[in-house]
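Residues determine shape. We examine one folded chain.
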Amino acid sequence: MVEKREAHGMWPSIYDPFRAFGNRLADWLNPATEASGSGKSYEISMELPGVAEKDVELTVDKGVLAISGEKRAHEEKKGDTWYFSERQYGAFRRSFRLPEDADGAKASATMKDGVLHISVPKLDPGKSADVRKIAIS
């Protein structure tokens, strides 16, 4: 008689690839981000490997900085008797409520080596921020 425990022991190995895929998908949908502040500005850095500048949009509206974009990548390999295609793509959106002393109207952004850098200068108390699109330079 075969014990049920042996058959049950096989199930985790069958589902492991799906668990790993889910973790990678979750990592992509929430790009790694760092935020810090200094005496003059707030800085946000976001890892976006494989994302083109043209596929990233940044906006500031009512004190909320929104970063959205899409990753598009494709790798294709062919042989005489085999074919393989690997694609990675997906959209993301992150938003951050800016502190009251952040001047979103003067925010700037650069992108280098797959890392988006956003700088938001601090503003004098009492000023309000206008909605505007931020160009990546």
User: Anything to note?
Assistant: The CA atoms of residues 8 and 14 lie 11 Å apart. The two ends are 69 Å apart (CA to CA). The helical segments are 4-29. DSSP finds one helix and eight strands in the chain.
